[in-house]
Inverse folding.
């Protein structure tokens, strides 16, 4: 039987005179999913030094982080690693650190410490590619971004999906049960909806650059409007993919991303409410008609699209 998750503990490390260890979470199933019952008998690794701090790192649901924070209570302090910020202190029994303090730890690499393969980074620049997913509203950007992320994740666990918009539609919406009604979903989105501020896009641009220093690919969902406020995002990204239900809107996105932002086009998807897949061209970028990009109705990301995206961050494609 496959263990759905593993915990790895690093050796003692030191930053700013703070002693700490990294507790890395690895989700081992190909879909990177775990169930609540999987933590019922979960035990911490041996060798935890309670006189220092512990930084929890890895892609995992909030309830697993909550459980680990509780289980690590005897340690001096506990922080959660956010690749966009650093290690954020969330609990402490020590006067050495305070709640909310961000500790600039190096990117945890617990998998590598245990002999497991890690994605290759861009050794020339130190930054991985960042792919903007753009297009007009109601074309399927959020659904495509999530489907693409999930399809790549099993073979490429070191990728990241950054939602750089404020409409409240995150991964949690797309992963809700099929029994969830449209009214309930709209309620979730409304409660989490934000607003555009002067700080919004510069903040996400910095987050993307920080992610590019650590990941093999960053997928960026930026919402459905061509806006000058998004220029910081353009500067932080390298490539773009257009998905549009309106053929007449494609040109404006090319002008914004390619001509103004100097980004490299990867694909144009003419989205459809019908189940269709038709290749129009493959050079200088992929152009296809594809559908349906609706929550709960996406069957599979077209293989030709996956292959095209992989070419920007893998050397063997």
């Amino acid at each position: 039987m496959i263990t759905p998750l593993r915990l790895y503990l690093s050796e003692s490390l030191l930053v700013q005179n703070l002693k700490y260890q990294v507790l890395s979470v690895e989700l081992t199933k190909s879909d990177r999913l775990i169930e609540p019952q999987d933590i019922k008998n979960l035990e911490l690794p041996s060798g935890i030094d309670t006189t220092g701090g512990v930084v929890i790192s890895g892609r995992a649901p909030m309830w697993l982080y909550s459980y680990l924070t509780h289980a690590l209570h005897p340690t001096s302090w506990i922080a959660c690693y956010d690749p966009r910020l650093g290690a954020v202190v969330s609990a402490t029994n020590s006067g050495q650190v305070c709640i909310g303090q961000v500790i600039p730890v190096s990117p945890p690499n617990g998998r590598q410490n245990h002999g497991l393969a890690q994605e290759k980074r861009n050794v020339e620049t130190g930054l991985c590619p960042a792919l903007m997913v753009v297009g007009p509203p109601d074309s399927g950007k959020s659904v495509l971004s999530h489907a693409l992320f999930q399809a790549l994740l099993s073979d490429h666990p070191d990728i990241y999906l950054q939602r750089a918009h404020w409409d409240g539609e995150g991964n949690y919406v797309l992963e809700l049960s099929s029994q969830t009604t449209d009214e309930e979903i709209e309620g979730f989105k409304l409660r989490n909806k934000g607003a555009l501020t002067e700080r919004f896009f510069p903040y996400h641009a910095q987050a993307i650059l920080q992610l590019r220093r650590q990941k093999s690919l960053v997928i960026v969902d930026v919402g459905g409007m061509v806006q000058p406020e998004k220029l910081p995002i353009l500067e932080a990204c390298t490539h773009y993919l257009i998905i549009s239900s309106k053929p007449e809107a494609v040109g404006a996105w090319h002008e914004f991303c390619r001509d103004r932002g100097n980004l490299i086009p990867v694909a144009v998807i003419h989205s459809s409410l019908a189940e269709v897949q038709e290749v129009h061209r493959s050079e200088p970028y992929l152009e296809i008609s594809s559908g349906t990009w609706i929550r709960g109705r996406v069957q599979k990301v077209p293989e030709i699209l996956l292959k095209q995206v992989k070419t920007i961050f893998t050397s063997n494609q």
Notes: DSSP finds nine helices and 14 strands in the chain.
